[in-house]
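Hi again,

Forgot to attach this to my earlier email, sorry! This is the prediction with zinc ion bound. I've pasted everything inline since the attachment limit keeps bouncing my files.
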Amino acid sequence: MDMLHSPARTRAFASWLLGERGTVASVLRDGSLALVEFDAPAWELPQKARRWPVHWDDLLVYSVEAGPVEHQDGLRVALSGEGREAVQHALQLGSRTGLCGAPVYPLPFCGLSIPFSPSSVRACPTCVRLTATAP
Ligand SMILES: [Zn+2]
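Structure tokens for the complex follow:
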């Protein structure tokens, strides 16, 4: 496991950050970076910082188990395809297909719960259009 794509500051502390649980607080750089807020208390984390920018591709190495469902509303990210080719679809809670109807799998990230971001470069165009017109 490594953090090959994240900013140098994040990479420098990758061994501390890998395996930590967190949620994505916001999406940076057109969706290529996620600002992850880790669940651990700040004093347990490097430089006492809870928020770290992590590249989307590096988030995939957090694969362990499906995270707990924390939010009861809103659209989540689900994927079709694999790795760098993965497309981000919008997923309604409890659904097994994206809004566009594509079969998807939920993110396997360790505890991460990621809201769908229409501005992401990897967002499915159909899902983006559907979320834009959704009530
Ligand atoms: Zn889609």
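Strands lie at 22-28, 33-38, 51-55, 76-80, 87-91, 105-106. Confidence is low (pLDDT under 50) at residues 61-73.

That should be everything now.

G.
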